[in-house]
Amino acid sequence: MNDSRHAAYDRVRERIEIARAAAGTPRVDLVAVSKTQPAEAIGRLARLGQRAFGENYVQEALRKQQQLADPSLEWHMIGPLQSNKCRMVAEHFDWLHSLDRLALIGPLGRHRPSTRQPLDVLVQVNIDDEASKSGCRPTEVRALARAVEEQAGLRLRGLMAIPAPGAGTRDAFRRMRMLFDSLRADHPAVDTLSMGMSGDFEEAIAEGTTMVRIGTLLFGTRA
């Protein structure tokens, strides 16, 4: 492992732990965003103990899974999901962060192999109502959550968001936490709030996130 990458990983883990302790959050999981990174880079990070990796593109992720052939790794689909990719995600991923419409739920549930654990699902919320971003409206979360729970092949875990960058990010994290707490009141098994990336993960942790998605700080600038 390149010494600089080793140091970068250790530093990210340290920063997460410091922010977690300050916030009093029981856990903060790290998803290493490996989109556009080669399988070799993922393997190097895995040898340091990183298990969860986030990918935006299904075909790219499947190639990496085949190259690495490591059943201990946990694969997270974090990019927008097209209907024609539901089967591949259901068959080959452990988590989906980007569920944003009812039409995806049936195909995901039907195609999840019975030999695997249910697919862990997060509902993506477009918390700042940005036209350029995927995600449902906050008012649509409950209907999506109920539909996920009706599918035996799916397991509702919580919410995900990518707030608009800028001065309002902290407020968006706060609103997401309120929405998450409201969802948990109706669905007690919900336990994951995925928000916070390389430039703002400490703010997200301060507002109660339980999962951060970090790429640049771990791998460097993407190709």
C-alpha geometry: globular
**Backbone structural class:** alpha/beta
Whole-number tally of structural domains: 1
Largest sheet: 8 strands, parallel
* Number of DSSP strand runs: 8
Briefly note the CATH topology name.
Answer: TIM Barrel
Number of helices: 9
CATH architecture field: Alpha-Beta Barrel
Strand order of the largest sheet: 7-6-5-4-3-2-1-8
List segments where confidence is low: pLDDT < 50 over at least 5 consecutive residues.
Answer: none
The residue fraction in helices comes out at 40-55%
One letter per element, helices H and strands E, the order comes to: HEHEHEHEHEHEHEHEH
**DSSP strand (E) fraction?**
15-25%
Structure description:
Helices cover 41% and strands 18% of the residues. The chain has 9 helices and 8 strands. The protein has helices at residues 3-23, 39-46, 58-68, 86-92, 105-111, 141-149, 169-186, 201-206, 216-219, and strands at 29-33, 52-55, 74-77, 95-99, 119-125, 154-161, 192-194, 211-214. The two termini are 19 Å apart.
Summarize the structure.
The protein is of the alpha/beta class and 223 residues long. Helix content is 41%, strand content 18%. The protein has helices at 3-23, 39-46, 58-68, 86-92, 105-111, 141-149, 169-186, 201-206, 216-219; strands spanning 29-33, 52-55, 74-77, 95-99, 119-125, 154-161, 192-194, 211-214.
Entry keywords:
9 helices; alpha/beta; TIM Barrel
Write the layout of secondary structure elements.
Blueprint: H1 3-23, E1 29-33, H2 39-46, E2 52-55, H3 58-68, E3 74-77, H4 86-92, E4 95-99, H5 105-111, E5 119-125, H6 141-149, E6 154-161, H7 169-186, E7 192-194, H8 201-206, E8 211-214, H9 216-219
Parallel strand pairs: 1-2, 1-8, 2-3, 3-4, 4-5, 5-6, 6-7
